[in-house]
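Action item from last week, closing it out:
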Amino acid sequence: MKPVIALTKGRLEKQFLAFLESLNYDIQPLKEKGRKLQVETEHFYAVFAKGVDVATYVEHGIADIGIVGEDILLEFEPDVYDLLPLPFGKCRLAVAGEQKAENKFAKQRIATKFPNITTKYFRERGKSVDIVKLEGSVELAPLLGLADDIVDIVETGNTLRENGLVVKEEMLSISARCIANRNSLKLKKAILAPLIDSFRIEEVAI
C-alpha cells in the first residue's frame, strides 16, 4: 500500500516537484503526466486538484496527505492535521489599493478571494468593512470603482505595480503546508512516516 498525496495544481505543484527532486525522489512520472489527474510513482500515488479541493480530499480521507497553501487552511479551516510548513510557496497576504485613493463608500469596501480571513483581520482591529467576494483579478476592483482596496496574496508585487496599486498593510506571511488526514496518521503511520520525515529533514536543513 502506498500513500496518496493530493497536490495543488499550478505554481505549488511545480515547486513541490522541485522540492521532491531535491530529496532524490524519482519525479519523472509526475513530469510526464500530461493531462492525467492521478499518477502512480515508486513511493506514492498523486492526485492533482485545486487548493481548496486538496484540503477536502484530505479531510475526507481520499488522500492521506496534501500539499496546499496556508491561505486555504486559514480561509476554509478544513478538519485536517497541519503537519508542517514547507520551504516553498512563500508569499504575503496584504491589503493593497491605489496610493492616494479616497474612501468611495460610507464604509470601507474590500474586494478579496478571502472573505473569512479579511473579516477576521479587520474585526480584530475594531474595524467593520464591507466585503466583496471575487474569484480572480481582484486588482480590477479598485480601478473600476467596485471597492476601495483589496486583500490578496502578494508574491513579487509586480501585478500590483503594473496596475498602479501599492501594498498598504501586510497582514501575514504564508507558505505551502503539508497537511494530513487525522485517521490516516493513526492507521497508516508506518507508510506515511518515512515520507513525512523526509520533508521534515529538508525543513530542518533549510
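Closing note: The two ends are 30 Å apart (CA to CA).
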